[in-house]
Write a structure and sequence with these properties.
The structure is a homodimer.
Chain A: H1 4-18, H2 21-24, E1 29-34, E2 37-42, H3 56-77, E3 82-93, E4 101-107, H4 111-123, E5 125-135, E6 141-153
Antiparallel strand pairs in A: 1-2, 2-4, 3-6, 4-5, 5-6
Chain lengths: 156, 156
Amino acid sequence: MQTSTDAAALAALIRHLEAMPPVAALQPRLLDWQPGRVRLGAPLQANINDKGCAFGGSLTSLMTLAGWGLVTLTLERAGLHADVFVADSQVRYLRPVFEDLDAQAQFEDPALADTLLHGLRTQGRGQAMVQAQVRLADGRSAATFSGRYVAIARTD
Amino acid sequence: MQTSTDAAALAALIRHLEAMPPVAALQPRLLDWQPGRVRLGAPLQANINDKGCAFGGSLTSLMTLAGWGLVTLTLERAGLHADVFVADSQVRYLRPVFEDLDAQAQFEDPALADTLLHGLRTQGRGQAMVQAQVRLADGRSAATFSGRYVAIARTD
């Protein structure tokens, strides 16, 4: 069930994405959000390369943003306001994507969400490992992502 | 010294980058190319995030493209025509970038260029590890990249 806090956090997330020119160029849209999972989509046409499939940088950006959205929404839902950064990431490109992009992010382990929140509450900062992937419509994985995100409490 | 082959390959590279919408959005430009090294720049304004510094996805895309350009130009210079793909990559985000982006790519080991060319000539495919980084004007590293590229000979 979505609460009004969720709705406000989602609206803020979408405004946030649209305000960044390099992100707006990807034309991302929120496909789904549940606690512990975020799915972002993007049209192939805005992200196409010379081979008629998705540009690798777009796959990585979308997975990185899905992870960033996951951490941000998890914090907002808990009433915590923080700046969220990606610290490092690994990406594997497995298959070309000749269709609209669909990237899903989740915590590497569901318990990491609690560790993240605990860090923010007790030390003003926390971190979490996030996994993401771009899935094809037939269910196969086109790219996988593993990234570490750091959150630092905002005092404003 | 640049040859006319270099000039043609550079012109093709720039056309190639500009033809991809998600790449054109980054507004990349070639700052320097020497055998074994490619430098790409991009304006901060086109790549800015909500914190007033460069979006992490733009840093990664620019480093990925610099590596792609390095492999492509190395092959073209040797008279080889191939499709070049990034297969996997690791990125570390070290410092925020509040200035125009400057990404440089080189082979992890200079001898890898010869191995790449040898693979293309004898087996129709080759691969190479590339390192890249985004450097700040003061010389410090803002992000580092390590990626594996695969090249497959084109028969056209």
